[in-house]
Amino acid sequence: MAYELFHEVAQPASAQARKFVTEHQLGKHFRFRNIFYPEVQADFAARGGQELPAIWDGNALIQGGEAVLAKLAQIRDGGG
Q1: Are 53 and 10 within 8 A, CB to CB?
Q2: pTM score
Q3: What pLDDT, in 10s, does the model give residues 24-74?
Q4: Domains in the chain: how many in total?
Q5: Maximum distance among all alpha carbons in the chain?
């Protein structure tokens, strides 16, 4: 399954999420979406985005640092 990680470069919670993806070799499952770009902002808004970081799994948007890290741990452990 492919996921999208919406993030902001300077935001600590986003940096933590990107680091988790990298450290746990999850990059092949993720498309990093930098909120700096207007097209990414539009996609984030279209998915109901309110808080960064956020993961779009194709059906739902998981938002906020704690929720994103929990989802990343679930993905790492094979639970998708």
Answers
A1: no
A2: 0.94
A3: 999 999 999 999 999 999 999 999 999 999 999 999 999 999 999 999 999
A4: 1
A5: 33
CATH of the domain at 34: 3.40.30.10
pLDDT digits (tens, 9 = 90+) for 4-29: 999 999 999 999 999 999 999 999 99
Work out the number of other CB atoms within 10 angstroms of the CB of residue 26. 15
Q: Which domain holds residue 7?
A: 3-76
**DSSP class per residue in the chain:** --EEEEE-TT-HHHHHHHHHHHHTT-GGGEEEEETTSHHHHHHHHHTT--SSSEEE-SS-EEESHHHHHHHHHHHHTT--
For residue 29, count CB atoms less than 10 angstroms from its CB and return exposed for 0-12, middle for 13-18, buried for 19 or more.
Answer: middle
